[in-house]
Design goal:
Elements: E1 2-5, E2 11-15, E3 23-25, H1 31-34, H2 53-66, H3 87-93, H4 96-99, H5 111-128, E4 132-134, H6 140-157, E5 166-170, H7 176-183, E6 187-191, H8 201-207, E7 212-218, H9 230-239, E8 243-248, H10 260-263, E9 267-271, H11 272-275, E10 288-292, E11 304-308, E12 311-315, H12 332-368, E13 389-392, H13 394-400, H14 404-413, E14 420-421, E15 430-433, H15 441-460, H16 462-466, H17 479-484
Parallel strand pairs: 5-6, 5-7, 7-8, 8-9
Antiparallel strand pairs: 1-2, 2-3, 4-10, 9-10, 11-12, 13-15, 14-15
Helix pairs in contact: 3-12, 5-12, 6-7, 12-15
Length: 492
């Protein structure tokens, strides 16, 4: 029975051998007719291997053993919040009611999916202190770029878009901040950090003016320091007519405790795949929430979930919107995981998770290093770090020749994923650790002992660390050669 035509006009036939099942079967294409030019036809059959199921299973299991994730061992990758993600969230995201939908099916048939987004929207507004949320961006940097688009659209509508050509970014910022600003056509003005590792207020006052479009700030910053002057910082920028953007990459340290909206920020992105429980190693999947105050809500990407007398819909009638920034309505299953995670924790649990992330970071910092090695250590009674901290291996390198890179490679031989290396750029020989809230004290103790053992090794046998790693499938690559002569095709 012919049930319709596909996009090329070929009849679609559905087999109903099982009640309710609809399996599409396309008629075979006549390949010579589909490719009229004989020169385009393959002269020999494609050499595809014929393998038994067991061989295929072994192949993928072997690939899995070559990878490293939070299910293999400690993963303190700074600023990336690589934490354990509960399996319950995966089960919810795999429910047929969420996975078997089509983005073009009628809105009245996806009310449950829209309800997920609406509920998540409300919770994230409460967590951030913002008034409106879009879930369309595909990742944090994508949401950040869209947020700067909103700032630009706001100034253009106000008539001073051309004159407000500068975006202020601290020197400790994530690299995506100046990239997002530059891609939107802004000139980036870098503000130095003060002696305390936070924004230099005097330098900020000098930088702002009638050409300021806004400020992009991470708080706590990439040193793990919560800026005590954040309210003053946002007042200074607002006083110059600029807007304030909050980089939510480090929200895991403050969620449920303090809110970007209360600090004076106008627009913010959250990394749903980091802070709110979606595994994201290897580049995906990602998802972001773009949040803003009411006066900017009209600029959010469209469509937006709307409620009309209890019926949910997708509102496209948004004349001020910066437009669509992703296909349909973003990575919906990331939203399912985020909502499940938040409902499982509850309000108190969200704050407890952040508190434990801060506790674990400070516990590990105190076990790992002397004050000489901790970046921006300020005296005998230093401020606590937030969810992450940064060590400087500059002294060790000068004394032993062992670099931060050598220590990071050495951790691989101990079954520990390396921390972030050489970032932030304002710290020489930097190693940034973020243990997250999901690691136990026993794990942190073992990780600290492994690191301290390497410090001893650096002094007693530095050459062994410079040759690390020894136990991984791939040893230390020639990074300069790899960057200059990349191999872009698989070579079997």
């Amino acid at each position: 029975m012919v049930d319709g035509l596909d996009r090329m006009g070929v009849p679609l036939v559905f087999e109903r051998s099982v009640p309710g099942a609809r399996t599409a079967m396309l008629p075979p294409l006549d390949v010579p007719e589909a490719l009229p030019d004989d020169a385009l036809l393959r002269a020999e059959p494609l050499p595809l291997p014929e393998l038994a199921e067991g061989e295929v299973s072994r192949h993928y299991s072997a690939l899995e053993r070559r990878a490293f994730g939070v299910n293999n061992g400690f993963y303190p990758l700074g600023s990336c919040t690589m934490k354990y993600n509960p399996k319950l969230n995966e089960e919810m995201a795999a429910l047929p009611g969420f996975t078997d939908i089509h983005p073009l099916q009628p809105v009245h048939t996806i009310q449950g999916c829209l309800a997920v987004m609406s509920r998540l929207d409300a919770i994230l507004r409460e967590i951030t202190g913002m008034d409106a949320v879009s879930l369309q961006p595909a990742a944090g940097a994508h949401g950040e770029f869209a947020g700067v688009m909103m700032i630009k659209a706001y100034h253009e509508r106000g008539g001073d878009g051309a004159s407000r050509a500068k975006m202020i970014v601290p020197d400790s910022a994530h690299g995506t901040n100046p990239a997002s600003a530059a891609m939107n056509g802004y000139t980036v003005v870098t503000i130095p950090s003060g002696a305390d590792g936070c924004v230099d207020i005097a330098a900020l006052r000098q930088a702002v003016g009638p050409d300021t479009a806004g400020l992009m700030l991470t708080n706590p910053n990439t040193l793990g320091l919560f800026d005590p002057n954040v309210a003053e910082i946002t007042r200074i920028v607002h006083g110059a007519g600029g807007l304030c953007y909050y980089d939510g990459a480090n929200l895991n340290a403050i969620m449920g405790i303090t809110r970007p909206g209360d600090m004076g920020f106008d627009v913010a992105h959250l990394n749903l795949h980091k802070t709110f429980s979606t595994p994201h190693g290897g580049g995906g999947p990602g998802g972001a929430a773009l949040c803003c105050k009411a006066f900017l809500s009209g600029y959010l990407p469209k469509p937006m979930v709307a409620d009309s007398d209890g019926a949910l819909s997708l509102d496209d009638d948004r004349p001020l919107s910066v437009g669509k920034v992703g296909a349909f309505y973003g990575n919906f299953l990331v939203c399912v995981r985020a909502l499940c995670y938040l409902l499982s924790l509850g309000g108190d649990g969200v704050a407890l998770a952040a508190s434990n992330a801060v506790l674990n970071a400070n516990y590990l910092m105190r076990k790992l290093a002397s004050p000489d090695d901790i970046a921006y250590w300020d005296g005998d009674s230093p401020r606590a770090r937030a969810h992450e901290f940064v060590l400087s291996m500059k002294k060790m390198k000068s004394e032993t020749g062992v670099s931060a890179l050598d220590l990071a490679k050495g951790l691989l031989d101990k079954g520990i994923h390396p921390p972030t290396m050489y970032f932030p750029l304002i710290v020489d020989e930097a190693l940034m650790f973020e243990p997250t809230e999901t690691e136990s004290r026993a794990t942190l103790d073992a990780a600290a002992e492994a690191f301290l053992d390497m410090v001893r090794q650096a002094r007693d046998d530095p050459e062994s660390l410079r040759a690390a790693p020894r136990s991984t499938p791939v040893r230390r690559p020639d990074e300069v050669r790899a960057a200059r002569n990349p191999i872009l095709r698989y070579q079997g």
